[in-house]
Design brief:
The chain is mostly helical and 54 residues long. The chain has one domain (3-52). The protein is built from 3 helices and no strands. The N and C termini lie close together (9 Å).
């Protein structure tokens, strides 16, 4: 595992941790984010997945 791949995984972990903390509140951010990803299939998500598994 190279340093760039490790950095990307660490960034994803930090973002997911922040979403988990915000999800405790009255607005379910994780569900809204999942709905956005399913409906629009953003290009940045495909690039992120490609970078993680490269």
């Amino acid at each position: 595992m190279n340093a760039n791949n490790l950095l990307i995984r660490l960034q994803c972990l930090i973002v997911l941790f922040c979403i988990a903390i915000l999800d405790i509140g009255p607005i379910p951010f994780a569900a809204l984010g999942a709905i956005f990803i399913v409906l629009f299939r953003p290009r940045w998500l495909k690039r992120l997945i490609d970078e993680i598994y490269s």
